[in-house]
Amino acid sequence: MGALSFHVAVFAAKCTKLGLRVLGRGATTLPGKVAAKIDPDILKRLCDGQDCVTITGTNGKTTTTHMITDIFRNCGYTVITNVSGANLLSGVATSMIFGMKDMKKAKKEGKKVICVLETDEAAYGKIACQIRPKVSVVTNLFRDQLDRFGELAHTRDLIAKGLDSCDADILLNSDDSLVSELYKGREGRTCFYGLSEESMHYNNVTYPNRSGVLPASSDAEYCTGCKTKYTYTARSFGHLGAFACEKCGKKRMPPRFFVKYDLAKNPSDEGYELSLLDAGEGRTEKSSGSSSSGETAALLEKRVKLPIPGMHNFYNSISAVAACVRMGEKIGDPEGLSFARCASALEHVEAAFGRMEKIAIGDKKICVLLVKNPVGLDRALSFVAGASDADGIYMLLNSNIADGKDVSWIWDVDFESKEFPEKVYVSGDRYGDMMLRILYSGVERERIIARPMEECADLLDQAISDSTTGKCLYILPNYTSMLALRSILVKRYHLKDFWK
Amino acid sequence: MEIELRICHMYPDLLNLYGDRGNVLSLIRRAQLRGIKVKLVPVSIGDDFDEKDFDIVFLGGGQDAEQNVIRRDFVEEKGPKVKSAIENGMVFLCICGGYQMLGKYYQEHDGTRIECLGAIDVYTVGEDVRYIQDTVYEADFLKIPGQKDSAILYGFENHSGRTYLGPSVKPMAKVIEGAGNNGKDGYEGAVYNNVYCTYSHGSFLPKNPRMTDHLLSLALKRRYGEDYELPPLDTEGEDFARSALLKYKEKGNTAP
């Protein structure tokens, strides 16, 4: 019975896809939804016997998934992965169903298959038991459309539920106090990644140079256990950093995988170089060089040039490498997926659309940075403030359901400390809100051109034509305005829509 | 004479939800543009609160977990001083959780009553359905004869608590769009002495510069005497945002 319903479900999914194709529509979630209606255990059956990696958390899921996928592919694996955003049960099942063909092909060619699955942080609790990942990465927990999920602690508990429903090796961000506490009760299978403490700086001190009026609204200033305010010896950004609770002793755990970089250099620069390090299995940043048994182990270090700049991508990069190395250890391919190989493979990762990719338009350049929540916007503004080639910024803010109906989060971001490029353009349905936010940060009214969403394409023309040859126009849309922007770039500027 | 405004930002590290920080930025901006010197003091858990040090107090909303952290400090430690400041006419702006906490109690879904400060005669009952939407209110105290727009306040509400006002407290505004205090009586917020409370989050003051000016004026008159007049300041940027919002509302927001 089980097998029959499975085949019927898969067949129905294929028919659904065909139908959607005829209608000229994308088929990233509906086929999986249909299949799950017929066979509620569809995802479990699809993932049975597969080597799956899951990526969950509020920020950086898509980029990290993308990086892990590329690393595995560069190391000779066949990868089944889901489309960005299609990260609920329906989307994951859809990707797995249509990945079956590739799996069969890989089997024939004697290639190994890995499934790299981005999973929504609120859905993870329910679907982890079906995917039964071998490795599970938790990126971070930042405020993200709170009107949908309620509370960060609640989101963390949903992830905990997912982790307890499988026996995955867990990779946690050591610098995120909310994420790192997920190791409790799961000590044996948890390993940390993060920035080396000496590579952190206090937010808004090194970049940019201006000081803010008010600190940005922070997500996790107090210890979740004893409600005491954390002290920080260093911070990378937001609430990420070397935190410690003086009362109950909870503190940042030293990571096994970590990033070191030169604080004097600007992470907004292209070709920015940093070091990725691995202290080795069972060791950490603090205990590298010797283990409890006294034997010494070499600390592995690899200098890499990141193809995708920005400090938040340091976290995405190290977690991606960590996930691949752990998977190698787990499936018995530690050489094929050695630290050195994975770290080198990272250099060939390409940016996904809206994730820092620079696109040439004639002799001008644009760079699109998707911003969905306060910390993402903070990082993007900080990045643009540090970019030496920025001479214009174009911000688009919509408030459709997929964006979150509430746009008040733009006020949680510390705009005041960020230097804006000379020319500022604003559009989106909520162009008034965004214009006001920028104005209140101290940018003169004359520098801001704000137009309604209907005129966003014309404003893009103007912004590109105003831009100086060789300089870059930075575009910061939120989710649905990015989709609109993408189709404008395809139609007006004849850019190939190769972004998936 | 140099005019100075001293803002007390209460629990900025805990009560900072839905852009409440924008209200403080508004007070600072519209004071500074008038040449007023602004002193901003964060007052959090364990910090002393002395009403002599401030002209205006801002109290925002937070996530439930964070509100539980501060309740003891606010109600027990700072409570008597906050109450006396309110009775002495100190200007307060309180949003959502801050509003609820000034009231007598918050009754949770399961009937449990959480005692609050009791500085103003309101109480709140938590319910399942959350009000999440853009709002429009009309506040009589802002009305300028002949200027239709002057009394209109724009906001965004996001709350599951229903607040009911006692006889000594007046509502802040009439609801034109949205649920307001409790979705029943057609009113929004509360005013008691110089305390202004609202459910309107985030960009409440930025989009309502006349409300900002009203609070600044109250605070500075209290400090420098009734003769003090706030210097004029245009609202061009804010009005641009208000008319953009109006267009957005008229267009209707039906996209997915």
Brief summary of the model shown:
The complex is a heterodimer of chains A (500) and B (256). With 500 residues, chain A is of the alpha/beta class.
Question: What are its keywords?
Answer:
heterodimer; A: 500 residues; alpha/beta; UDP-N-acetylmuramoyl-L-alanine:D-glutamate ligase; Protein-Tyrosine Phosphatase, Chain A; 2 domains; nine-stranded mixed β-sheet; six-stranded mixed β-sheet; globular; B: alpha/beta; Rossmann fold
Topology:
The complex is a heterodimer of chains A (500) and B (256).
Chain A: H1 2-22, H2 30-38, H3 42-47, E1 52-56, H4 61-74, E2 78-81, H5 89-109, E3 113-118, H6 124-131, E4 135-138, H7 146-149, H8 152-164, E5 169-173, H9 177-180, E6 190-195, E7 231-237, E8 240-244, E9 257-260, E10 273-278, E11 300-305, H10 312-331, H11 339-346, E12 355-361, E13 364-369, H12 374-386, E14 390-396, E15 423-427, H13 431-440, E16 448-450, H14 456-466, E17 472-477, H15 479-493
Parallel strand pairs in A: 1-3, 1-4, 2-3, 4-5, 5-6, 6-9, 13-17, 14-15, 14-17, 15-16
Antiparallel strand pairs in A: 7-8, 9-10, 10-11, 12-13
Helix pairs in contact in A: 1-2, 2-5, 4-10, 4-11, 6-8, 10-11
Chain B: E1 4-10, H1 21-32, E2 37-43, E3 56-59, H2 64-87, E4 91-95, H3 97-102, E5 105-107, E6 113-115, E7 122-138, E8 152-165, E9 173-177, E10 187-188, E11 190-192, E12 195-198, H4 204-207, H5 209-224, H6 236-251
Parallel strand pairs in B: 1-2, 1-3, 3-4, 4-12, 5-7
Antiparallel strand pairs in B: 5-6, 7-8, 7-9, 9-10, 11-12
Helix pairs in contact in B: 1-5
